[in-house]
Specification:
mainly alpha, Na+/H+ antiporter like fold, two-stranded antiparallel ribbon, 73% helix, 2% strand, antiport, NhaA, Na/H_antiporter_dom_sf, Na(+)/H(+) antiporter NhaA, membrane
């Protein structure tokens, strides 16, 4: 089945925004390790907003919980489109990212635990479970038409499931207190959104306003609020008419440019603000560093591909259309870009020890860099191999 026009457009824009994203990462690292680093961090820590409804947060929170919810909204819209009418419309295609994501969470956690069980680092088992969806999609999109679009869709769906899993892990194991009243309000608001869909309400404003309340309630419940973007996306109707543009298509079109060329670069600029210290380097060869690096690179690679292989052999799933196992290896490596979510879990895991936090950050940065480079190289090699096969 042909890929939807909007999904092609999404990845086409990301192909060019990926370069901007990498540039922002380099700029952020330079700032963090210069005389401007402290001032930039103070800016990110500065609280802005209004005391009304308790909406005063640091700039970094507004970016990671606010702007990134919009990014998750766009990716959620694309995933829903493909589930309804595209690459994920069959159960066998849609189930593969779920099986892969489960393997991509369990195996890294097991590898980390192998290195750190019984040590002071044992609480960090959730660190290598996460995939940074923004960076992984940006890297794979830079390959353009060199790889099948089905592989890009697979990674997007995998990363969404992975992030939802990471959010659940944070909520259950790393959140000190869940505010149940706000969580119940979140469930009620989500139910209202899906009721509007069931009643065939098509005006976007009737989804956007409850979506803002959903974000507010989730954020105050103690759960990572970016999940609000996914829930909102799945509630917005599509295929209302074969002639008219659906509400999903309209919103998707409006979000394209700001997400690719504004939100993602800002996200990269603010989340790579890591100042290097000598303790960080020393921590790479510790059990903490080895657990994180091996968990993110080997754990993701093995977990995603082994669980995918089992699901396909049991005929529960099928390989993405026109893809190869070599490309699945590349995707498994790209999923090892843990970065922001991994750093977030590291901060929660070792909140009483800044030196351990720093060691974990550096290990995550190294693992994510290696995963990005290796994944990009493997996927590039797979495209050349396919081209040679066609020529011969």
């Amino acid at each position: 089945m042909n890929l939807s026009l909007y999904f092609k457009k999404f990845f086409s824009s990301n192909q060019s925004s990926g370069i901007i994203l990498i540039f922002c990462v380099l700029v952020s690292l330079l700032i963090a390790n210069s005389s401007a680093g402290e001032g930039f961090q103070n800016f990110l820590d500065k609280e802005v907003g209004t005391q009304l409804f308790h909406l005063t947060y640091p700039v970094s929170i507004w970016i990671n919980d606010g702007l990134m919810a919009v990014f998750f909204l766009l990716v959620g819209l694309e995933i829903k489109r493909e589930m309804v009418e595209g690459e994920l419309s069959s159960f066998k295609n849609a189930s593969l990212p779920i099986f892969a994501a489960v393997g991509g969470m369990l195996v890294p956690a097991a590898i980390y635990t192998f290195f750190n069980s019984g040590t002071e680092y044992s609480s960090g088992w959730g660190i290598p479970m996460a995939t940074d969806i923004a960076f992984s999609l940006a890297i794979i999109s830079m390959l353009g038409k060199k790889i099948p679009n089905s592989i890009k869709i697979f990674l997007a769906a995998l990363a969404i499931v992975d992030d939802l899993g990471a959010i659940l892990v944070i909520a259950i194991f790393y959140t000190e207190q869940i505010h149940w009243a706000y969580l119940l309000l979140s469930f009620g608001t989500a139910a209202l959104l899906f009721l509007l869909n069931f009643l065939k309400v098509t005006r976007l404003i009737f989804y956007i306003i409850p979506g803002l309340f959903l974000w507010y309630f989730l954020h105050h419940s103690g759960i990572h609020a970016t999940i609000a973007g996914v829930l909102l996306a799945f509630s917005i109707p599509t295929n209302v008419s074969d002639v008219e543009t659906s509400p999903l298509e309209k919103l998707e079109h409006k979000l394209h440019f700001p997400v690719s060329f504004l939100i993602m670069p800002i996200f990269a600029l603010t989340n790579t603000n890591i100042a290097f210290t000598s303790e960080m380097v020393a921590g790479v060869t510790s059990t903490l560093g080895l657990g994180i690096i091996c968990g993110l690179i080997l754990g993701k690679l093995i977990g995603i591909n082994v669980f995918s292989f089992i699901a396909i052999k049991l005929k529960l799933s099928t390989l993405p259309q026109n893809s190869t196992w070599l490309q699945m290896v590349g995707v498994g490596l790209l999923a090892g870009i843990g970065f922001t979510m991994s750093i977030f879990i590291a901060l929660l895991s070792f909140k009483d020890s800044i030196p351990i936090q720093d060691e974990a950050k550096f290990a995550i940065l190294i693992a994510s860099f290696l995963a990005a480079v290796l994944g990009f190289v493997i996927l590039s090699m797979s495209s050349k191999k396919d081209m040679n096969a066609v020529e011969n």
